[in-house]
Structure formats: structure tokens, C-alpha cells
Amino acid sequence: MDAVLDNLDTFRQGFITTLALTVVSTVLALVLGTLLAAMRVSPVPTLRAAGATYVEVVRNTPLTLVFFFAVFVLPQLDIRLSFFVFAVIAVTVYHAAFFCEAVRSGINAVGVGQAEAARSIGLTFTQSMRLVVLPQAFRTVVPPLINVVIALTKNTSIAAAFGVVELTAVATRLANANSDAVIAIFLGSAVCYLALTLPSGWLAGRLERRVAVAR
Amino acid sequence: MAAGSPLLQMERVNKHFGDLHVLQDVDLEVDPGEVVVVVGPSGSGKSTLCRTINRLEPIDDGVIRLEGRPLPDEGRALARLRSDVGMVFQQFNLFAHKSVLDNVTLGPIKVRGQSRSEAERRARELLARVGVENQAHKLPAQLSGGQQQRVAIARALAMDPKLLLFDEPTSALDPEMINEVLDVMRDLAAAGMTMIVISHEMGFARSAANRVVFMDGGRILEAAPPEEFFASPRTERAKDFLSKIISH
Amino acid sequence: MRIGRWMRLAGTVLVLTLAAAACGGDDEGGDGGQVNEGASFAEGTTMARLQQEGAVTIGTKFDQPLFGLKNLEGKPEGFDVEIGKLIAGELGIAEDKITWVESVSANREPFIQQDKVDFVVATYTINDKRKEVVDFAGPYYEAGQDIMVAKGNPEGIGGPDDLAGKKVCSVTGSTPAENIRTNYPDADLTEFDVYSKCAEALKNGQVQAVTTDNVILLGLISQDEESFELVGEPFTKEPYGIGVKKGDTEFRNFINDTLQKAYDDGRWLAAWDATAGKVAPEKPTPPTIDRY
């Protein structure tokens, strides 16, 4: 336990890095995922195919490989960014596929009549998505979206293996330095992850209740 | 556009759903101010016909012209065309997450670029015209079916359409609500709105239509003024269809 | 007393199981090195027993390039393996009578204590903590933390003090990483989970240096000599020893004598040249043997 308390500041820095990685990636992945979902239901066949290909390729690639591509292949194309930014790219690209599928299931749950009515008053495809379909779709997919957010939070730990000093990297380092307190240190990092994921679950519950009232 | 030329022209329109030939060489012309009621047994293709006119269903072959211009492909031009062709659905399809008032103002604000106050003033006028002005701030789910369908008509009217399509507008309604919707439609017809109505309401066809079109098996078999069609249908199938409707 | 009997029985079963596992290692053929046919040892010593049996079991690493790395035919090769053969040869045991057992860092002490191996040559750093449970002959090589840079050393890094302001890569939580963090705080430390990623980052120019034991760095260089090179002298001391059973002083002395002989007649240097010497920038001098 002392090993944890003595290194609270190091833990705090790791926690902040994990938090930043989680929040930035969640926002970007949700935006990208929603765009992909819109592509997948669009009337343009090329967009539909591109969206489907993205999802199938990314969803079936291990996250570690996505990280590897981001961290070691992008630099060979002369894209030079910090390891944190590369981690944001990897986490975003990967989880956008999962957000896409969650949002798409929500879009499919919104009756086709809603989209037809939107288009029949002259809204463009983008407008009918933004103004009519997506606002309704998001209400039905709060629980699956939160699932993806929780998975994303935990998956940021892969960044530890790719040059980002986040929670897991900090725990690994402290564990190596304090071989007598390994369990306490990893329990400490588990508590930190819970501090991130539990509020997500709680928020999901609240949102679900609110949506239930609005219906 | 020359005076007297048709608002809508359909020429040799064909449409398949897989192996099913749902529209076969359909020809139809509708003049400005005309009210056309399309009747026929279910599965005859009349709903599909209606949905091809604002390209909710693309066609395989033939040509559809509105004011002399062929329907555009997907994109902004198609959205512009749809803004001029109102549509009322069997299931109302009001935007479930928006209030009645917002349902009516969405198109004028986002498509026509009207100010919110202008759009709301006009929306309240239209809601009053269809008799639901005191429901403006409710959500669609809080309204009865008849009220929802009248809101849907107000929503279509808010775009000042050149042509209004009604796809079985009373089929999903409880019987006691059918007339409140048909009354609104009669008023519109009397006011000179160009309308194409897919309907089983023969009373409405008799009283409001300029012309009745009878469809069966994907083809238009007859087109005549209502008094002529109901009194002396020319085809056996139309006779058969009418005898079943009346025996109900 | 019943419990005592059961405990003894369980202990016997355990020992038998472990012994069986130790014997399960595969015998490997060899092309025959220098074998001392005429060696003679005092009755009751480990040397006499091994000579009698005509076979020996040696623990080494199977995944450390240039020191102990299993080749495609399944035989380990490298400097540690050559040292192992050299000692076996002095016992009159030919290469094909050596059984190689993979010894990762965590199982070296248990293997020696449980007689699963006769001795261990496995990049095994001598330290006081380990001396409490095993004895060490040697050192036969002095490794140390060193720095690897891109070929041609474009940043002009000559030692750890030149790392200030430079991005330097190591493995998360490793001793070399902590050494940099503590003693060279001006260096910009980047940590990955494995050294191969550090090498990739160095190749991409995302870091300017990689630091860890020179032995590991030499292994990385051996896999891509076009891209990397070692700079300067090791700046920590990691004496590699040969682990034997605690208290077997005769065996330890024999191995020390054998090492000294190999230093003197050039076989030690030949073993180096044939393995790590292929990529190491400088020839090492044999370290002084610590006959404690």
C-alpha cells in the first residue's frame, strides 16, 4: 500500500494521461463513427461500400496492430507526431468502427418512414440525417454507445506499449521498481480505471431513464 | 411553361421489385388544379406509382416530368424537387422527437430559409386551417391518429407545394377519424390544390375527384371522371373490384 | 506423524516429476569441439560424476541473439553456448552429449537448486542477492548499459551525458530505464514494452537513441546492421557469471580454472569472435575471475 501512496503523484500523472486519451479519442471516434454510419445508410453506393469496408477491415484488426500501423508506419510516410497523438489516432480509428455499428443499429431502429418524411419535405440526405434520424437514433443506442466508451477507456492501456506514459505504463514501471508491492500497485491502477468507467455506466443509466421519460 | 400544359407527365414508366413487375408501361398526365384519385386492389402498384413521383422509389424505365422537366437523380436538385411535391403518408410519419409546431416549421426554416418567426406564424395558420392549432406544443405521440394526419397535411402545405401526394392517408385511421381528415382534403381540393390521392374511400373519390384512375397488376386499366367510372366501368376487373368494395 | 509421511511422499513425487521433466530435454547432435579425453577428477566431485555419465545439462537462453538463440535447426548458438561447450569439453564431454535447457531470467535459480541443470550460462549477472542461493564462477564477460544510435551516429552521441534533450528509448520499468530516469534526468525518456519497438522508433527517427544492456543492443544490431550502431563504452557494470549449485566449490573452482585456461590459450576470444564479435565494435578484454 505504501508503494501506491508514495507514488500518488506519478499515479496522478498517469491517470490524467489516460483520462485525456480517453476523452479526446471518444469525442473524435464518436464523430468519425457517426459519419461512417451515415455513409453506410446513404443512397450513394460508393459511400456505402467505403463505410462497410472501413468497418470490416478495422473491426477485424487487433488494436495492437492498429497501434503498430499508427506509431511505426505513419512516420514512414513522413507523418511526425508525438506518441500521444499517434495513440489518439489509433484508439480513434479503431473504436470509430464500433461506434459506427452502434449508431447504425440506432438508425435502423428509427423507422424508415422518418427518413422518407424528412426527404419528402426537401431536406437533403445530410439534413435528414442530422435533423431527423440521428437525434432519434442516439436515444435508442445510449447503452451500446456507453459499452463502446467503456471498452475504449480500458483499451487505452495498449498505449503503454507504444511510448505513452499512461496509467498502465506507470503501474508497470512502479511494479518493476517495487517488486514487493506488485499487487497493491496494480490494484491501485484498477481503481483508477474504475474511477473512469463507473461514471460512464452511471451516466448511461441516467440518460436511459431520461430518454424513457421523453418517449 | 405554356398555359394548359400538364403539371405531371409519366410516360411508359416501368418498375420491378426483383422478379415482380410492379409498374408496367404506366402513362399518366395530371393538369394543374386537378384532383386524381387512384383506386385498385392491394398489390396493384398504386402506392408505388405515388412514391415514384417524388422519387422515393426510383424507376427502371420510362420518364417522369414535373413542369416539363425530368426528375433529377439523387442530390440537391432532387431535394429541391421534393420540396415542391408534398407527400402525406399512411403512417403519418411525423418527426417523433419534435413538437407539432417544429414538425411544420422544419422544412420552411431548413429548406426555404425562412426565419423562425415567419415560419411559426405561417405554421400556426396552417394548424388552424386543419383544426389542431391548440396542439402546437405537443409531441406527435400525444395526438390521436386523425390529429397526427392533419398535422402531416399542414407540414406538407407549409412548403407551398405544386403537387400533393396522398398515399392511403386514411387507411391507418380508426373509422371515426377518417372524416376529419377527408374534410381537410376536400377543402384543399376545393381551393384548387393539385392532388394525387391513393385511396379506398370511394365517397371521397365521387365527391372530390376530377378523375378516377383504376390500377390492377401494375397497369392503369381505366381513367375516367368519377361519375362515369362508378356508373359504368369498362373493364371486367374494375367491375369486379367495385362490386367487392360496395358489398363491404 | 502421519502428516509428515504424507509430506515426504508428496516431496518425493514432486522431485521425481521435476527430474522427469529435466530429462525430457532433447539431446542435440553437434559437430564436436575440443574434448579433453584424458581429464581425471577426484572421486565424489561433480566433475567426476559428469565425466562418468558422459553427458551434461546446461541452462542457457534461447531468445538472446549472439549469446543464446535457438537457430532454425533447433540448436542454441551464441557466446554463452560456446562457453558452455568449452566447459563440457574440459569435462571430456562432446558437444553432442550436451542437453540444452531454456533458462529464462525467472527460472535460473530454481533450475540450479532443483538439479534440473548442472550449470547455467545465460547472460546471468552476478549479484549478492543471487549469491545467497547459488554460486557463481567467472565472470566470463562484463556487460553493461550502453547506447545504440542510427548508423553513422548523426546526433554525435558519445555517452549517456550526451542524451540530454534527446529522445531515448527503453523498456517500461526496466533497470536501464530507471537508471536514465534517476541519473540522467535531462534525457527525454520514451518507453515501450519491448526493445524491438525501440529499434523501430529509432529507425523512423522518432527517438535518437536506444539504451539497455550492450548485449541486448548487440542482438538488435545483429538483426539490422545497416541501420544501427553501438556508441561509447558501457556505463554500468553487469558481470556475467556461470551459475552452479550453492556450496559446490570444487565445481566452481574447476570452471574458473577452465575459463582462465581459455583466456590464456585464445579459445575465449575465438568464441567471442565467432559470435558477438561479429557485430561488437571492440574486442573485450577478459574480466578478472572472482575467486571468492
Describe this structure in words.
The complex is a heterotrimer of chains A (215), B (248) and C (292). Chain A has a single domain, classed as Orthogonal Bundle (MetI-like fold), CATH 1.10.3720. Chain A contains ten helices and no strands. Chain A has helices at 2-6, 8-40, 45-59, 63-73, 83-109, 112-120, 125-140, 142-155, 167-177, 182-214. Chain B is built from nine helices and ten strands. In chain B, strands 6-7-8-3-9-10 form a six-stranded mixed β-sheet, sandwiched between helices. The mean pLDDT of chain B is 92. Chain C contains ten helices and 13 strands. In chain C, the strands form four sheets. Chain C has a five-stranded mixed β-sheet, sandwiched between helices. In chain C, a hairpin with a 3-residue loop joins strand 2 and strand 3 (68-70). The chains are: A mainly alpha (215), B alpha/beta (248), C alpha/beta (292). At the A-B interface, helix 6 and helix 7 of A face helix 2, strand 6, helix 3 and helix 5 of B.
Q: What summary fits the major beta sheet of chain C?
A: 5 strands, mixed
**Spatial ordering of strands, largest sheet of chain B:** 6-7-8-3-9-10
- Reading the helices and strands of chain C in chain order gives HHEEEEHEHEHEEEHEHEHEEHH
The helix tally of chain B amounts to: 9
Radius of gyration of chain B: 18 Å
Largest sheet of chain B: 6 strands, mixed
**Gap between N and C termini of chain C, in Å?**
42 Å
Stretches with pLDDT under 50, minimum 5 residues of chain B = none
Specify the number of helices of chain C: 10
Strand content of chain B: 15-25%
In short:
With 248 residues, chain B is an alpha/beta fold. Chain B is built from nine helices and ten strands. In chain B, the strands form two sheets. Chain B has a six-stranded mixed beta sheet with strand order 6-7-8-3-9-10, with helices on both faces. In chain B, strands 2-1-4-5 form a four-stranded antiparallel beta sheet, covered by helices on one side.
